[in-house]
Design a protein that fits this description.
118 residues; alpha+beta; HIT family, subunit A; 3 helices; 5 strands; 26% helix; globular; binds guanosine-5'-monophosphate; HIT-like_sf; Histidine_triad_HIT; Histidine triad (HIT) family protein; HIT-like; catalytic activity
Length: 118
């Protein structure tokens, strides 16, 4: 997807501090925030700092090592939030509900023993 000349993504603006959102974890290449509209007790977004790939298909083709880094950061972030097990979701395309075309992974989980939490 050609993105040259477009506005910075909402995630780039968060990374720059232009839109407030706590960065809960970061590496050189990837950062993690809490989703503003959580769909599970734990709902994090794992995002490459560079806005180079619009979706996971482009990322997998263009930089598979960065995709692997996102998965590892998702594991650490879920663990830090209290979940050993988690769902990792990449909405890919408008028809699948993707709204931000700066690739990101949703990490969805419940906390340990968290049946009553929602
Ligand atoms: P998508 O539907 O593109 O896979 O997911 C985009 C996600 O970004 C949505 O779950 C939405 O709630 C989240 N989101 C959109 N704007 C903001 C924001 O300003 N801050 C945070 N923390 N999350 C956002």
């Amino acid at each position: 997807t050609e993105r040259v000349g477009t506005e910075p993504s909402i995630f780039t603006r968060i990374l720059r501090g232009e839109i407030p959102s706590e960065i809960v974890l970061q590496t050189d290449d990837v950062f993690v925030i809490r989703d503003i509209a959580p769909q599970a007790p734990i709902h994090l977004l794992v995002i490459p700092k560079a806005d180079e790939y619009a979706d996971v298909v482009e990322l997998a083709a263009g930089d598979p090592k960065l995709l692997a880094s996102m998965v590892e950061v998702a594991r650490v972030a879920a663990s830090q939030a209290g979940a050993a097990d988690f769902r990792l979701i990449f909405n890919t395309g408008v028809g699948a509900g993707q709204t931000v075309f700066h690739v990101h992974a949703h990490v969805l989980a419940t906390r340990f023993g968290g049946l009553a939490e929602a």
